[in-house]
Write a structure and sequence with these properties.
- With 366 residues, the protein is mainly α.
- It has one domain.
- The chain contains twelve helices and no strands.
- α2 packs antiparallel against α11 and α8 crosses α9.
- It is elongated, with a radius of gyration of 27 Å.
- 24% of the residues are buried.
- The N terminus and C terminus are likely disordered.
């Protein structure tokens, strides 16, 4: 009984009928929503099966966000305390005035039962410059922690890309066996892509902050600052195609990156749109956090979403896009390669007409 249960979990239930020719979707949107409806539970199983590889990434991001929000809330709470006590820091303050301000704040905050650690934190973030330093510290620490967290996801991303590619074009895939085979075959290129992706946030952050500090000396430093940002944007747009291309074609790592980046540019509006769709759940949670009183509940809901379904859904959306783009720019130029898999084709209508002709008695009118 247990073996049958696990087999159904990993491989899915057999005996599900395929589409009839009359039922085949006629466009990509129909195909996407039909496959999403059919594969919804399987996507949840795939997500739960692979979420362990993404758990460090989720933990690091959620911890950084939580630390930053806790710091913001503590800073506001302590400011209200000293402001209520009538203690104000004058505009254009000097270092002596700042020291005097902090000296006045300390006993008031201690009386309000703030700890020494919290008072020490207040002394570092009570000014706009201090809060900026705190923000930069959180961001820099986050980019460093992201390196190992993203690095380990590369092979798993390849396995997910293979499964979702097949499902997005109405082809069968065994969740566990095909995932394992795809990881085994593509783990080197997967690690290569994830290695570059992992260090890119740190490179972008360091480059952006460095050139931003140099713009005070010359506005010409805006040019390399923008180049660093564009490099990051281009990579994350090309990343939409790297893992699907990796599991679909036998190409060198250099050609994999080059072709993916070219597709990232060639389909720029669609790629930006897909990235915005990927960011929508997080953006919604951020808006609820900023403008409502249910922000922490929204963050918990966002965390649950990614644990149960969100990762696989994002990859499924990406697979639907990449299947269409590959058919248009690659498969249509390769002899003998079937395109528009899962969609109703003109040949299907012609075959039906031939079958009807063969089934008619002699002399029957069309």
């Amino acid at each position: 009984m247990f073996g049958k249960l696990m087999n159904n979990y990993y491989y899915g239930k057999s005996g599900k009928g395929d589409f009839n020719k009359d039922d085949l979707p006629t466009n990509r949107f129909q195909l996407f929503f039909e496959m999403l409806r059919i594969r919804f539970s399987a996507l949840c199983r795939l997500n739960l099966m692979t979420v362990l590889a993404f758990a460090p990434l989720i933990f690091v991001i959620s911890s950084s966000v939580s630390t930053y929000l806790s710091g913001i809330n503590l800073q506001y709470g302590m400011y209200d305390t000293v402001h209520t006590a009538g203690i104000e820091l004058p505009a254009g303050y000097t270092q002596e005035q700042l020291a005097e301000y902090l000296a006045k704040c300390a006993p008031v905050l201690a009386e309000a039962e703030f700890s020494e650690a919290e008072i020490s934190f207040w002394s570092s973030v009570c000014t706009a410059e201090g809060m900026s330093d705190f923000t930069r510290q959180i961001l820099f620490s986050l980019t460093l922690w992201l390196i190992p967290c993203i690095l380990i996801t590369g092979p798993v991303e390849a396995g997910i890309a293979y499964i979702t590619r097949n499902w997005a074009r109405d082809e069968h895939a065994f969740i566990w066996q095909d995932f394992k085979d795809a990881v085994k075959e593509n783990w080197k290129q997967g690690l290569g892509v994830s290695a570059i992706t992992s260090v890119l946030p740190a490179v972008i952050y360091v480059g952006w902050t460095f050139y931003s500090s140099q713009t005070a000396q010359s506005v010409l430093f805006i040019v390399p600052q923008m180049l660093v940002l564009m490099l990051g944007i281009l990579w994350f747009l090309g990343l939409l195609y790297m893992y699907p291309m990796m599991v679909s074609y036998r190409v060198s790592f250099r050609d994999l990156v080059k072709n993916s980046l070219m597709l990232g540019i060639a389909r720029l509006p669609q790629n930006v749109g897909i990235r915005l769709i990927h960011l929508f759940p997080a953006a919604l949670a951020a808006l609820l956090l900023l403008f409502t009183g249910i922000g922490y509940y929204a963050l918990m809901a966002l965390l649950l979403y990614y644990i149960v379904f969100g990762i696989a859904l994002a990859r499924f959306i990406t697979a639907s896009l990449s299947n269409a783009v590959f058919d248009r720019f690659i498969n249509s130029r390769m002899e003998g390669v079937e395109i528009n898999r899962g969609l109703r084709k003109e040949e299907d209508d012609e075959d039906e007409e031939e079958d009807e002709d063969e089934a008619r008695p002699d002399g029957a009118q069309r």
